[in-house]
Design goal:
This protein has about 90 residues and is mainly α. It has helices spanning about 5-10, 15-25, 30-40, 55-60, 65-75, 80-89. The radius of gyration is 21 Å and the shape is elongated.
Length: about 90
């Protein structure tokens, strides 16, 4: 589990990225990515009480669809697409 709340708290208190990385035990680049993702998502300290670590992680680090799911979705409509293309030609 990532320490997103701690990273955001320390950043709000004015600690440098290096100090935050040392404190939470990760690379400075990981802190930079976390802060960038938080900024993109509009998440800032102080956090609301309902934003626990799991919700923050899901917001900042969403799971990607696997390529097999994408391929299945694409090819499941292949016949429909081919039929539509034939009609439009």
């Amino acid at each position: 589990m990532r320490k997103i709340r701690e990273v955001l708290r320390l950043q709000a208190e004015g600690f440098s990225e290096r100090e935050i990385a040392r404190s939470v035990g990760c690379a400075r680049s990981s802190v930079q990515i976390c802060l960038w993702r938080a900024k993109q998502a509009g998440v800032a300290w102080p956090l609301s009480p309902e934003q626990d670590e799991a919700k923050l992680e899901a917001l900042l680090y969403p799971r990607r669809l696997s390529i097999s799911i994408i391929c299945v979705n694409y090819f499941s409509n292949f016949r429909q697409r081919a039929a539509l293309a034939a009609v439009l030609d």
